[in-house]
Amino acid sequence: ALASARSDTLIWARDPDQALSIGQRHVNPRHLPDIALPPALRATADFGAALAHVLEGPDQADRLIVLGVPMSGLADVCRRLAQALPARVPGSAPVHLLWTCKGISPDTHQWPHQIVAETLPGTAWLRTGVLSGPSFAREVAQGLPVALAVASRDPDTGRAAQAAFHGTQARIYGTRDVMGVEVGGALKNVMAIACGISDGLRLGTNARAALITRGLAEIQRLGVALGGQADTFIGLTGLGDLVLTATGELSRNRQVGVAIGQGRSLDDILAGGMTAEGVRCARAAQALGREHGLDLPITDAVCDVLFGGVAPTQAVAALLARDPRDE
Ligand SMILES: NC(=O)C1=CN([C@@H]2O[C@H](COP(=O)(O)OP(=O)(O)OC[C@H]3O[C@@H](n4cnc5c(N)ncnc54)[C@H](OP(=O)(O)O)[C@@H]3O)[C@@H](O)[C@H]2O)C=CC1
Ligand SMILES: O=C(CO)COP(=O)(O)O
């Protein structure tokens, strides 16, 4: 999306062959082999050269770094950045750093912004924020329209993202609610697994609508308890991304759920190395809910099925057998 809006976009890939293919043939052979990437997109496997491109490029107004790695790679890439960033940056304009990952660290239960703050501390000129919302990578790479949100404590970061992304494809909304946006992004993946399981069991569209709606209530309950704003959860990064992921066939989290509902094992489904952040963060979400004394029944059911040896049909029966309550 960036490369379609501006000609000076450079992608860094850790795999030199991948960088070569993206830069010269405009194809990402591993992740999107059948899609032609914008011809203006350049690529490198040299981390220092990629950073120099941002810091020393001619456009001092909106210098932007987007980290498109999963949760498992965020701390690693931030540490590399911390080591490579100079004490002072050339020029006076700040550098804006965005991340796209949606999840919670399975070990430390940290949110992405906490990992970034811990690994990149005290860099006054580096402004940070999360880029999130309904956005299957395949559709974005095909040049189809997309609306996203950037959450940052610094409104300039939202404005920098708007300046960089706005063109013919993408529209970016700004918000200050970093926690709300990150909770929405992480928990919608858990709910997409639940909806996938329901669809894999052929429980019908009524059941799916119920899971989406009650799932949203659950996401909002946790998000507000952690300091997020209630209305963030009915925006792009809450309801928008939940609807996309719970119903869209491109969702990997949904695909995991469907396969489980059809009787496959989790190990078998993930054997090919598929990124399904909901699997990685469901237990952390459950633990955070318990810490805050919250009822998260769909998250509990997903954990029971993924890790507790509970059959999907049993988990559904347990959800339906819960005590009556007001909506
Ligand atoms: N895919 C999607 O549709 C969307 C994904 N997201 C979120 O964005 C994040 C990334 O997702 P996605 O792109 O699908 O993930 P992938 O697993 O496809 O990884 C994306 C890229 O990150 C690289 N990477 C992974 N770990 C490291 C590391 N330690 N150091 C350097 N590079 C690394 C991978 O390199 P390599 O190819 O060498 O493995 C790959 O090029 C996830 O948290 C996801 O939830 C958000 C919106 C949409
Ligand atoms: O976050 C996404 C779309 O916004 C991608 O969802 P999956 O990770 O389930 O494929």
UniProtKB/TrEMBL annotation:
InterPro entries: 6-PGluconate_DH-like_C_sf, 6PGD_dom2, G3P_DH_NAD-dep, G3P_DH_NAD-dep_C, G3P_DH_NAD-dep_N, NAD(P)-bd_dom_sf. This is Glycerol-3-phosphate dehydrogenase [NAD(P)+]. It comes from the Bacteria. SUPFAM superfamilies: 6-phosphogluconate dehydrogenase C-terminal domain-like (SSF48179), NAD(P)-binding Rossmann-fold domains (SSF51735). The keyword Protein biosynthesis does not apply. Residues 1-156 form the Glycerol-3-phosphate dehydrogenase NAD-dependent N-terminal domain. Pathway: Membrane lipid metabolism; glycerophospholipid metabolism. It is found in: Cytoplasm. The keyword NAD applies. Catalyzes the reduction of the glycolytic intermediate dihydroxyacetone phosphate (DHAP) to sn-glycerol 3-phosphate (G3P), the key precursor for phospholipid synthesis. NADPH binds at residues 14, 102, 137, 252, 277. It catalyses: sn-glycerol 3-phosphate + NADP(+) = dihydroxyacetone phosphate + NADPH + H(+); sn-glycerol 3-phosphate + NAD(+) = dihydroxyacetone phosphate + NADH + H(+). Sn-glycerol 3-phosphate binds at residues 102, 133, 135, 188, 241, 251-253. The active site is at residue 188. Its EC number is 1.1.1.94. Residues 177-316 form the Glycerol-3-phosphate dehydrogenase NAD-dependent C-terminal domain. Belongs to the NAD-dependent glycerol-3-phosphate dehydrogenase family. PROSITE patterns: NAD_G3PDH. Keywords: Cytoplasm, Lipid biosynthesis, Lipid metabolism, NAD, NADP, Nucleotide-binding, Oxidoreductase, Phospholipid biosynthesis, Phospholipid metabolism, Signal. Its main location: cytoplasm.
